[in-house]
Task: structure prediction
Amino acid sequence: MSARDDILEANARYAATFAHPELPREPRRRLAVVTCMDARIDPLAALGLELGDAHVLRNAGAIVTDDVLRSLALSHAVLGTREALVVGHTGCGLHGASNEELCAAVGVSAVDFLPFADLDESVREGVRRIRESPLLPDAFGASGYVYDVSTGRLRVVTI
Ligand SMILES: [Zn+2]
Result:
């Protein structure tokens, strides 16, 4: 059985007891979370959130890219979120990597995969990009954290 078959079976079980048919589109906690795609992070569980509580924006490295800012602008202006948490993590594949090795792994040249040398600084830079974005008002909050994938603990970087 393929992974896809397993997933369809699992979804049938999930849907059979689905208990949230009427969730509003607006996140209940008025919160957005920017974090990495790393499979070891369960953002809702780690932050005490439930389905419908927050927008979760994920990419490789928890980088606040232009596309993350695009999503945050809509998250705020259309769907009412008031702040974003940027959550980097220990053991990130982009931490300490170089574009040369990442390009070699992917088999391309001259692509910026946005690796970073300093984890805390990468989180702080993400928070800065949110604070300085013309797509978001000054009142929109931003704070930064590092999640430890071996303990489940969240450490404050900047609030
Ligand atoms: Zn990562």
